[in-house]
User: Fold this.
Amino acid sequence: MKQTLSILLLLVVASALVFAGGQGEESGAMEQGGDQMVAAMATDVGGLGDKSFNDGAYQGLQMGEDLGFEARVVESNQQTDYIPNLTGLAEDGADIVFAVGFLMEQAVKEAAQMNPDTFFGGIDIGGDPEIPNFQGILYREEQSGFLAGVLAGHMTAQYSDASPKLNADPIVGVVLGMFIPPVERYEVGFIQGVKYANPDVQVLSVTAGDFTDQARGREAAVAMIEQGADIIFHAAGLTGLGAIQAARENGVLAIGVDVDQNNVAPDTVITSAVKKIPESVYVVLESVANGTFEGGTHTYGLAEDATGIAPYHSFDDVIPQEVKDAVDAAREAVLSGEIQIAQTRADIQDLLD
Amino acid sequence: MSSTHEHTEPGRLPSILTIASAVLGAAGLVIWLGASMSRGETYYFWGIWLIVAALAVYLWRYRLLNGGEALRELLRSSARKMAVPVMGVVTAIVLGGILMLATGYNPIEAYGALFFGGLVRNWHISILNAAPLIFTALSVAFAFKAGLFNIGAEGQYYMGAMAAAWLSIHFTLPGIISLPLIFIFAGLFGAMWTIIPALLKVRTGAHEVITTMMLAHTARYLSPVFIRANGGDPATSTHPYVTWEILPNNFLPRFQQFLPQANYRVHTGILIAIVVALLIHYILYYTSWGFEIRAVGENKDAARAQGISVGKNIFRALLIAGFLAGLAGFNQVNGLDHRLFENLQAGYGWNGISVALLAGGNPIGVVFTGLLWGVLDAGGQFMARTTQTPSAIVEIVKGTILFLVVARYIYTAIGNWRRKRQRHREADAANAVKEGA
Amino acid sequence: MVDYDFIVNLLSAMIRNATPIALAAIGAVVCERSGVVNIAMEGIMTVGAFVAAIVAGATGNPWIGLLAAIFFGGLFSLIHAFATVSLHLDHVVSGAVLNVLALGITSYLMIMIVGHPGTTNPVPVGLGDYRWAIPVLSSIPVLGPMFFNQTPIVYFSFILIGVFTWFLSKTKLGLHVRASGEHPLALETIGVSVYKMRYFGVLVSGLVGGMAGAYLSIESNVSFTEGMTGGRGFIAMAAMISGGWHPIGAFIAALFFGLADALQVRFQVFEIARVPEEFFIILPYVLTVVAVAGLVRRSRPPKADGVDFMIERSED
Assistant:
């Protein structure tokens, strides 16, 4: 009891002391901003360095510096941090605050309602018509996956002579990180693309269960390569780096995700299924600068040039013209609405069986 | 707390003072914990002053019953006991500051933001962070008392969260009935996750570190399966990676319901955590169960010689530990999130180990170390946001605090050295007196 | 589908999965046989993995990276030795602290050195590029490709298992290490310093743990990722315990876990059942519990494991 009492006393005294110092600083923290426009973002628990949506959004903010924005970022450690980070950035004078990652959906909507004078954006988050200062930004990852799948489906079967890294088996593989919405859309799109190119191609799939454990991604890819998979697509964040490494070591091809990952292994990554988060963030920043910001959901896809596949780089000479044409034709077909791409596994049950 | 000898004629004053102190303290605690500084309300300080007042009243009562000398002795011994934690925290902060200086950050600015953010501006976040940590740390601490290492509290936490989410989605009873039920079931599900480790430990001697940890990983991967099975609103972009929102009758009451200006997110889970901590303290130190568990933890052979069943107590201790960790899940689902998310990476179970160790396994100490961790986490975020100092520094400071506070030997060694010097000085003085005479 | 190639591939994957766990586990075995409980393997591996990637990236030479990982792993573990042996800190506390510190230090240094959190740049050459098939031996069916067509650290792990088994049972120093974990007072009375033996034991776990980390970052892969150790340090502890605090036992336990993990990935590839993938992912963990329940005999830690040892030396 005595000990408890003493610790309590200590805490109380410490709190009181800190308050004495704290009061003066409140104004300092509140009065930043001024004329300088500030674009801020709060990452989800994945944090910067995920080579995916968090990094992409930050890159977009940095691009916004030519619009006169100052970029600020704060990384969330746990779920309880989301709301204070978002509202805190708003109170510190940010003109627009981005929430990154679908886990922040509830948090960003609450923050937007509490700070009606600040604009909010949400990457991978749907908008809400009742919150005019919040713009949700979704991507059609399934389109990127689809085009990557069309490429893979052709290359692994009819055109497997094009590269020594391809074998005769019509098999490709997918490594997933954890089963979350954007990952599912990538996978589902990829499977449809492969089957669209060639219904006889088999798609293997392994979920690694982690977004940071490279060794798991590597083993997942190796297990599929052993079964004859010669193109490995990954939607697994940093875990996927291990999958690319496995492809490189075993002399097969890989398809990157989110950003152009050719630089990870230039002799292995044939292309990447991308979503251009930086560009779409820049579009939002422009609308803030021009005063044309609108709420609701903005879905970015092929039509906005926000999804698709990355350049082929050194594989430009390897990939036969027919395959490139087929990919372009598929892109046109998606754009014209001729091909409808499903977004969930439940919608493509027939392809999975 | 019992008085040893009557000093002055106390009459009924001491009992009145006891009640006054308890009332003031409880009210102050509720107000302090429920306070929010984010819009300039100052409940926080009212709470603190009330607690200070309660302490003053308590000390007055102590003086009335035991006299001034005893009071001074109490204060002195408290100061001595506080010395180690204070020195540890201060030294860790200084070391962290040196690291910041060496790497080009301004430590004064950063620490100013850290404590302003954690203790004042985002105090409510500190509270929200602390509550689940207290539950998981209690779980680890309780197992420690029985000589067991419940390294898998994370898994029991997940199980509790799943049970709480499922029941809270389906129970339509009024909250006053359903909340206690959900509370108990969340705990029981947590305990369920320690039944196998407990059985194996008792029957085959399988080490609980292996079994609880393996089951922790298992629970972590089962939670997405559970979430997918429990839908979520198809209209949201998170479908089906977040469960349905739980029914409003199963929300834990929030401070705002009786403190109108409190931050709207702060729920009463922290109060439950404190009550549970007191209860665990009571069980451990004032019941025969607790005595037996501690006896087993201290020395199995001696306990057996006293006729205490080692197996039964290990079983009991692990189950209670699982129950406590499961409550953390209840706290998060019914108090904070009102739904269960996939990909929770908070790691309350793992962090609970540090919190329990820092408190030396003392259930009441856990409340304070949990709060300290909560403050450092919330303040670290505020610091990172306002001063752009990497919040990783907070992890380093945390590790150093843990190290310095728990490494009592350092202080024992310093104490021995000082006492020795003291003895020399006294001897010198005595010699001087002798020579003078 | 189950043919010769499948078996060989499965067993090779088992070895790859088991190597980091086995290395960390035998390090922990030596540490605990000397009487110091070590739950810090996760942190030591994190440090080793980080240092290996940074140094190998900066010098372009993965061998220097490996040496640096071993060195810094050892250095980091000395904190544990200092805390537990010299400062008499509780062993579990110190280990938990090291795990927290390793995370904090690496993510802080990521920002300082690499400039961003998350992952380092790929190293130009990884140890995985030094795969070496031992002539003759590697052509033995099954065992050849499994054991004798591997990458450097895998071979090191085989060698170290042998070395430490021999060391603990046959050498005088090994005897002293074991005595320090079983009967420290007896050891002290014959004039051998328990402190020194325990420092030695912890140091070994650091050196070997650093190597285990390097395996993850520069042999199995080519870059460091925050969180890449993925709990393997703790699984190594489990392997050490179910292996009965013996290097070979720990190795077998690590192999078992590696096999289960290799199997679950292949189950996913073959889609042996239409159930959520998570049910496959948990398989190694569940199987470990089953194995511990059914197969492993009651194992006993060293008698003075985790027991503080303090000698009162008169100083006046």
